[in-house]
């Protein structure tokens, strides 16, 4: 399966992606995780991305797309993947379509995690990541509304909407039930 997960920051995409990846047998590709790994290793890409991430802004599309392109070229992504946090702009979605077109394939579905703003703020403050201060969280939400939410229209024919409140297990059950309907 080739899936994209979309939802506001703190929607629990990463948590669900880790479980789904195991159940579906496809790699979990998180652009946030890839950036954080590059920052940790001090690579040129990490150094370039850090200031954007620390402020809660998007890393420029060209940098992000190149990183995803090389990750999708790895062997384990040949038969499917779960993209978590990418695409985050309509421009990135167009680039993804181009990349997949070159590989002769398309997305199976776009899973939208639907959750209220109160719940996401609560979850993010609990997780305490470096970019999870209140001011940066607020900016990430603003960026989501402006840059990423338009993807929901862009992908309207592929969206599978999941109510993302409740326990991790409940949300996973709902997601698996919806994905099983696609088969
Ligand atoms: P969250 O879902 O909580 O926003 P992520 O780990 O997905 O956390 O992303 C953290 C940060 O990494 C984002 O705020 C952004 O700066 C950067 N980032 C992640 N994915 C992308 C992307 N597709 N395009 C641009 N920047 C990205």
TrEMBL record:
Pathway: Purine metabolism; AMP biosynthesis via salvage pathway; AMP from ADP: step 1/1. Consists of three domains, a large central CORE domain and two small peripheral domains, NMPbind and LID, which undergo movements during catalysis. The LID domain closes over the site of phosphoryl transfer upon ATP binding. Assembling and dissambling the active center during each catalytic cycle provides an effective means to prevent ATP hydrolysis. GO terms for molecular function: AMP kinase activity; ATP binding. Its EC number is 2.7.4.3. SUPFAM superfamilies: P-loop containing nucleoside triphosphate hydrolases. NCBIfam families: PRK00279.1-3, PRK14527.1, PRK14528.1, PRK14531.1. Monomer. It comes from Corynebacterium lactis RW2-5. HAMAP family: Adenylate_kinase_Adk. One of its GO terms (cellular component) is cytoplasm. Catalyzes the reversible transfer of the terminal phosphate group between ATP and AMP. Plays an important role in cellular energy homeostasis and in adenine nucleotide metabolism. It comes from the Bacteria. This is Adenylate kinase. ATP binds at residues 10-15, 127, 166. It catalyses: AMP + ATP = 2 ADP. Its main location: cytoplasm. It is found in: Cytoplasm.
